[in-house]
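Weekly sync, protein design subgroup
Attendees: M.S., D.O., the rotation student, P.L. (late)

Item 1: inverse folding check
M.S. brought a backbone from last month's batch and wanted to see whether the design step gives back something sensible before we order anything. D.O. pointed out we never logged the input encoding, so this time it goes straight into the notes. Structure tokens as presented (337 positions):
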């Protein structure tokens, strides 16, 4: 008589990991309350035993959860909200619930990924603007649900890619064609280990285009700093107090560009007569204040990601898809028409 394979239990996981069943339960529901060394052992045991919590296995067999998760490091940023708007529009039309996981540390990110993969309480997961270590990527490759990255590209995953370097080149080209001879850059320094280094990539593309056209940007015409309100305003203020100012400034986001314009006006510096200003993202505020901006189609990129997830839910066997977000400069008053 053929033996029936037994489903692994929480007690099997605890035994293999050398911890109590209560600790395994805590790891599944509140991983941040379990020490890292124990988390690693429990995760290894779960992977080895192919363990699925009983209640979740029953629910998964009965029906889909109709829930899509979104992990994001910039929950309150306007650019995130516009991208989320695109995701929500597609998912709500298909009657999927959207669950947002906001992260502040790499530990938060890893904990959420482990919890979601182990409990399998989602039908799909979208990760915005994050970069992950190899072991976490391997964990996601073994997930029961499809995964899509936005603004980054990883092998074996559906991805919606934003070429920040190309965006910086487009900004430089636009300013140069407007006659700027002394371009400058103001941006938020990427200080988060789990986030895509978008600012640095935009600056790299900006400098690359300028160098190829015989323009070397001096260090005093580049400012990278913290995004906190006090630090940003202080940095912009000092930047604008230079005797030799750039005649065109590319800001790594529209929010920073708006702050720059406000501070410049308080100092009697005319935009665009003395300094042309271009931002990045093309969020709603750009149109309201007449800001020229590199449009990265935030809402549409969210729609792309949601569509990829839904397509993958219907067909798990198809090859991974990489979609590139088209970038373009939307010209408005801050660069002089």
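Designed sequence read out in the meeting:
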């Amino acid at each position: 008589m053929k033996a029936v394979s037994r489903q692994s239990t929480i007690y099997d996981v605890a035994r293999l990991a050398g911890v109590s069943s209560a600790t395994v339960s805590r790891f599944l529901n509140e991983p941040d309350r379990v020490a890292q060394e124990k988390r690693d052992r429990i995760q290894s045991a779960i992977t080895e035993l192919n363990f699925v919590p009983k209640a979740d296995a029953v629910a998964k067999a009965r029906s889909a959860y109709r829930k899509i998760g979104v992990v994001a490091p910039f929950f309150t940023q306007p650019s995130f909200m516009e991208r989320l708007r695109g995701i929500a529009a597609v998912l709500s039309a298909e009657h999927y619930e959207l669950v947002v996981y906001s992260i502040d540390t790499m530990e938060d990110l890893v904990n959420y990924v482990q919890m979601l993969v182990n409990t399998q309480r989602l039908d799909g997961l979208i990760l915005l603007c994050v970069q992950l270590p190899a072991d976490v990527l391997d964990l996601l490759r073994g997930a029961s649900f499809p995964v899509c990255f936005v603004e980054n590209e990883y092998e074996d995953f559906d991805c919606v890619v934003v070429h920040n370097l190309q965006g910086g080149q487009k900004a430089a080209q636009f300013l140069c064609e407007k006659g700027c001879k002394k371009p400058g850059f103001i941006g938020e320094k990427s200080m988060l280990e789990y986030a895509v280094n978008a600012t640095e990539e935009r600056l790299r593309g900006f400098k690359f285009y300028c160098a190829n056209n015989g323009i070397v940007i001096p260090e005093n015409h580049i400012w990278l700093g913290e995004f906190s309100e006090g630090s940003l305003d202080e940095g912009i203020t000092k930047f604008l107090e230079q005797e030799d100012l750039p005649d065109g400034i590319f800001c790594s986001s529209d929010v920073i560009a708006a702050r720059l314009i406000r501070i410049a006006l308080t100092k009697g510096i005319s935009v665009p007569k003395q300094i042309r200003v271009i931002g990045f993202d093309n969020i709603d505020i750009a149109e309201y204040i007449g800001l020229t901006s590199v449009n990265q189609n935030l809402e549409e990129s969210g729609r792309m990601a949601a569509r990829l997830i839904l397509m993958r839910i219907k067909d798990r066997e198809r090859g991974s898809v990489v979609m590139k977000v088209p970038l373009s400069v939307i010209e408005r008053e801050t660069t002089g028409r």
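Discussion: Residues 298-314 form the longest helix (17 residues). Residues 86 and 199 are 23 Å apart (CA to CA).
Action: P.L. to compare against the previous round before Friday.
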